[in-house]
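Re: weekly structure request thread

Next one in the queue (208 aa):
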Amino acid sequence: MIGYLRKNFPATVTSETVKKFSLAPNNESYVINALQFLGVIDEEGKRTEKGHDVFVLSDPEFAKGFEGLVKEAYSDLFEVRGDDAWSLSRPELVSYFRTTDKTSDVVGSRQAKLFQVFASIAGHEIDGKKIDGAATKSAPKPKTTKIKPAAKQKASSDLKVNSPKGSDGRSGGGSDMSLTVRIEINLPGNGTQETYDAIFKSIRANLY
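Done, posted below.
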């Protein structure tokens, strides 16, 4: 939701506004409460001046300005833990919120998760990474398929000369000689009947 509001922050933000972005289905009021707690909209959903001033900043300045909003909203936490609050683990945050606000484990877990999301948007890494949509995902690279070049068809011919054996069993010595020619032809697999007929017609014309 923060990303959408940075692009276009309407004068009034309501549950209907959240629905238009298809965010947090059936939990729109939770998003509104979070924005109100952060101080970027008031109790009537109207955009606050400090919220507008921070959300129009460029990326480097926005992270610093958003950090100020978070520290102001969680002033009690930062008074107790200082800047170490940014690096508190989820269980430590749950314990703090449950002790301070006297909430259940479920509510404390939601409070801890929300704080870590805000911390990540403010530029702080949680367990070495950005969380819950605060970091942008790179688009997957398209897969490329390598096409192997078609193997070249080879035509081969064998020439065999048979000479008659003499009476002593050795080759040669006679006047008669036989000649055998074997021709091997690789026909195209996708050829038509007309193609094959033309090939054999050419062979007959040149060999006989």
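The chain has two domains: 2-121, 156-207. The first helix runs from residue 2 to 7.
Next request, please.
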